[in-house]
Structure formats: C-alpha cells, structure tokens
C-alpha cells in the first residue's frame, strides 16, 4: 500500500489521461483497490464534487463522503446535499462539524472572525475538522483541477500531502470546466443552483461572491482579502 511514510521508496502508479474520463475512473478504481475503507472523499458539493460523487458511485456505491459543515454554507449547498443523498442512497455522507459552534467561536474570537482573520476561521472550521477526519486514514480524495487556479497547476493524480501526512488523490486534474459541465448535463446530475448565478466556486456564504474575473474561476472567493485557498490544499 502506498502510504505517506513510504512515499519516497514506493513505486507510484501511472494512469492514462486520454480516455473518456481523462483517467479519473482509473485513478478511483486504483484508489479504492489500494485503500478500501482507509480512504475518504472530502467533498464541498460544488460542481466538481458532483462529478466525483457520480464516478465514485460507479466503483464503490457505499463510499464515505465527508462534508466539512462549517455552519456558514449557503442554503443552496444544503439543498444540493439533500438531492445527492436521494440520488445515491448507499453513499455514507458524513456532515463533519467543527468543535466550536458559531456562538462559541464568537465568544472566544469575536464576531465575524471570517472578516478579520479568514485564515483563522478556515483553520477552526475546515482545516482542524479535516485533520480529525483524516486521523487514522491513509488517503483522501479531492476534486482539484489544474485549470482552477495557478496554485493548482502542478497537482498530480497521486500526491504526498505534507499538511495532513496523507496521500491525496486527485482524479480530475486534467478535466476542464467544459468537461465538468458536459459530464453533468450528459448524466443529468443534480447540482448547486448557485453555479447558474455566477458562482463557479462555492464555499462559505460570507466569503463567497460571484466570480469577478471570467478567467479565474476562484476570483469570487475571499475577494479583496489577498487569500486564494482555505488551507486544505496548502503544504
């Protein structure tokens, strides 16, 4: 088994990128053979997440899907999760919440921490909860695509994740925005209606706005704060 501790010595798998799913199904099939129940998918239920859930369901219908429920998501995001649960009843969708409620966070760090210190808010409500999820887990799946942003252009199918001391599996690295939507329309998949309202990337409501740059799908995230990532995908 390819693990974080054995990364340097282990032989890395290779996958075709020129087939119908640009390697995604091959990567997922390998990942679930390799790790079984020792791999989880941390899903934001954005459009890439919908694609991955559908692909995963074809390989492991009872896979564990973890949603980092910060308590600050759009109502439309929770509506999307409900639709996914209905379409894929065998999936084990876990709503992982932070240790601190929003009221407890307010009492300890002040009101609207996301405005004053968004990195701290992300740490409390996303990074720490994911670290708890990944404790004792060998690998996790992410919907990162190289096209999404400059910080993601060098992501590989299989990655050594130093932040969480895990293996991070990214099946969609070669998918374009057009590929994602073509798949969703072809398969008639449910998705977050905010995508139709100018939100290509959807996170917590206070820190997400419609995209301001058509060439940067994440330009609506933490707009004006000099922040581009929540911290889950940074070493």
TrEMBL record:
<feature type="binding site">
    <location>
        <position position="121"/>
    </location>
    <ligand>
        <name>[4Fe-4S] cluster</name>
    </ligand>
</feature>
<comment type="function">
    <text>Catalyzes the formation of sulfite from adenosine 5'-phosphosulfate (APS) using thioredoxin as an electron donor.</text>
</comment>
<keyword id="KW-0560">Oxidoreductase</keyword>
<protein>
    <recommendedName>
        <fullName>Adenosine 5'-phosphosulfate reductase</fullName>
        <ecNumber>1.8.4.10</ecNumber>
    </recommendedName>
</protein>
<keyword id="KW-0479">Metal-binding</keyword>
<feature type="domain" description="Phosphoadenosine phosphosulphate reductase">
    <location>
        <begin position="38"/>
        <end position="210"/>
    </location>
</feature>
<dbReference type="InterPro" id="IPR014729">
    <property type="entry name" value="Rossmann-like_a/b/a_fold"/>
</dbReference>
<comment type="similarity">
    <text>Belongs to the PAPS reductase family. CysH subfamily.</text>
</comment>
<dbReference type="Pfam" id="PF01507">
    <property type="entry name" value="PAPS_reduct"/>
</dbReference>
<feature type="binding site">
    <location>
        <position position="204"/>
    </location>
    <ligand>
        <name>[4Fe-4S] cluster</name>
    </ligand>
</feature>
<dbReference type="InterPro" id="IPR004511">
    <property type="entry name" value="PAPS/APS_Rdtase"/>
</dbReference>
<feature type="binding site">
    <location>
        <position position="207"/>
    </location>
    <ligand>
        <name>[4Fe-4S] cluster</name>
    </ligand>
</feature>
<feature type="binding site">
    <location>
        <position position="122"/>
    </location>
    <ligand>
        <name>[4Fe-4S] cluster</name>
    </ligand>
</feature>
<dbReference type="InterPro" id="IPR011798">
    <property type="entry name" value="APS_reductase"/>
</dbReference>
<feature type="active site" description="Nucleophile; cysteine thiosulfonate intermediate">
    <location>
        <position position="230"/>
    </location>
</feature>
<keyword id="KW-0408">Iron</keyword>
<comment type="pathway">
    <text>Sulfur metabolism; hydrogen sulfide biosynthesis; sulfite from sulfate.</text>
</comment>
<dbReference type="InterPro" id="IPR002500">
    <property type="entry name" value="PAPS_reduct_dom"/>
</dbReference>
<keyword id="KW-0963">Cytoplasm</keyword>
<keyword id="KW-0411">Iron-sulfur</keyword>
């Amino acid at each position: 088994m390819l693990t974080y501790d054995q990364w340097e010595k282990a032989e890395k798998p290779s996958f075709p990128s020129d087939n119908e799913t640009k390697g995604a199904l091959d990567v997922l099939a390998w990942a679930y053979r390799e790790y079984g129940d020792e791999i989880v998918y941390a899903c934001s239920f954005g459009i890439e997440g919908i694609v991955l859930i559908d692909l995963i369901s074809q390989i492991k219908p009872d896979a564990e899907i973890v949603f980092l429920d910060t308590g600050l998501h759009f109502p439309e995001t929770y509506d999307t999760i409900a639709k996914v649960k209905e379409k894929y009843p065998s999936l084990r969708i876990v709503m992982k919440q932070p240790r601190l409620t929003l009221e407890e966070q307010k009492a300890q760090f002040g009101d609207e921490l996301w405005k004053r210190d968004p990195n701290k808010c992300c740490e409390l409500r996303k990074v720490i909860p994911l670290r708890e999820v990944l404790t004792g887990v060998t690998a996790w799946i992410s919907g990162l695509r190289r096209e999404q942003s400059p910080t993601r252009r060098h992501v590989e199918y299989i990655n050594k994740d130093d932040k969480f001391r895990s293996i991070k599996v990214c099946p969609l690295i070669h998918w374009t925005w057009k590929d994602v939507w073509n798949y969703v329309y072809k398969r008639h998949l449910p998705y977050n209606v905010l995508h139709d309202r100018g939100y290509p990337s959807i996170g917590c409501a206070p820190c997400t706005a419609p995209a301001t740059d058509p060439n940067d799908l994440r330009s609506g995230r933490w707009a004006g704060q000099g922040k581009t990532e929540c911290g889950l995908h940074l070493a």
